[in-house]
Amino acid sequence: MSIKHNQSLSSLILAGGKSSRMGEDKALISVGGMPLLQLVCSVASSCTDNVYVVTPWPERYEQLVLPRCQFIRELRLSPSSSHGPLVGFAQGLAQVQTDWVLLLACDLPRLRVEVLQGWASELNSVPDEAIATLVHNTKGWEPLCGFYRRRCLPQLLDFVNQGGRSFQQWLNQHPIQVLSLPASEMLFNCNTPEDLALLK
Ligand SMILES: Nc1nc2c(ncn2[C@@H]2O[C@H](COP(=O)(O)OP(=O)(O)OP(=O)(O)O)[C@@H](O)[C@H]2O)c(=O)[nH]1
Ligand SMILES: [Mg+2]
Fold first, then answer.
1. Where are the domains positioned within the chain?
2. Which residues fall within 8 angstroms of residue 43, CB to CB, at 6 or more apart?
3. φ and ψ at 90, to 5 degrees?
4. In sequence order, what are the beta bridge partners of 51?
5. HAMAP family this protein is in (predicted)?
6. Whole-number Å distance between alpha carbons of 131 and 142
7. What is the pLDDT of residues 70-110, one digit of tens each?
């Protein structure tokens, strides 16, 4: 397999959610014999040189096989307080050195490397004013499988520091370039035991 890495792109994978609908940590659930987080990390490392997992509990994932992946330990006010994916993303983005970041949730079992690589190869043609390039669906943006410019960090921190927690609200304040999704099942989100059963 030829590996096409984009030098100006890193990946951030969010793995700090409550998994309350699943009832157990989704990142560790096995799909096709591989824990979900490991699967998503392996897809990400087929697309970018640097892969970072943003989580408040890196020790929980130390036993996973995550070659070339590094942890970014997320800080929280208290161990049990979850502040949501937008704050996790902000903390991760602050550590990244590349112009672009591929942001991924850890609960996407049907990601397709060739689609992500195709999108990554088009980043040069995204208009300068766009802070991100994302898929748009009937409910709004798909924030957890798409590309963001590192330069949007100050705007993101302003929003978060004013108490903002919603990706949709934040994204609606800025120009975003639309990504076209060739296969909608690629964004299948595994949130519940019923979702998991659909995969088997
Ligand atoms: N690092 C980090 N990731 C988060 C946080 N909240 C959610 N995520 C991640 O964001 C992605 C989407 O999360 P959801 O599926 O919406 O929610 P969840 O909190 O994991 O699960 P539910 O409790 O069932 O809503 C997953 O990869 C989560 O691990 C957070 O506070 N920090
Ligand atoms: Mg989800």
1. 9-198
2. 104, 111, 113, 116
3. -60, -45
4. 11, 69
5. MobA
6. 14
7. 999 999 877 677 889 999 999 999 999 999 999 999 999 99
Q: Which amino acid is at 63?
A: Q
CA–chain centroid gap for 31, Å, is: 18
Q: Quick check: pTM over 0.90? A: yes
Distance 114 CA to ligand 1 centre (A): 25
Query: Which of ligand 1's atoms lies nearest the C-alpha of 54?
Result: 1
CA distances from 181 to 119, 147, 178, 196 (A): 9, 13, 9, 22
Out of 12, 13, 18, give the residue to mutate to test ligand 1, the one with the largest number of ligand atoms within 8 Å of its CB.
Answer: 18
88 lines ligand 1 (CB under 6 A): yes
Binding positions: 14-16, 26, 107
Q: Dump pLDDT digits (tens) for 142-160.
A: 999 999 999 999 999 999 9
17 Cα: distance to centroid of ligand 2 (angstroms): 9
Class of domain 9-198 as given by CATH: alpha beta
Binding-site sequence positions for Mg(2+): 107
Rounded CA separation 133/38 (Å)? 25
Q: Give the span between the Cα atoms of 172 and 170, in whole angstroms.
A: 5
Q: Is the dihedral of CA 152, 153, 155, 159 positive or negative?
A: positive
Task: Considering every ligand atom shown, identify the ligand nearest to the alpha carbon of residue 27 and give its number.
Answer: 1
Q: Which residue has the tokens 């802070």?
A: 131
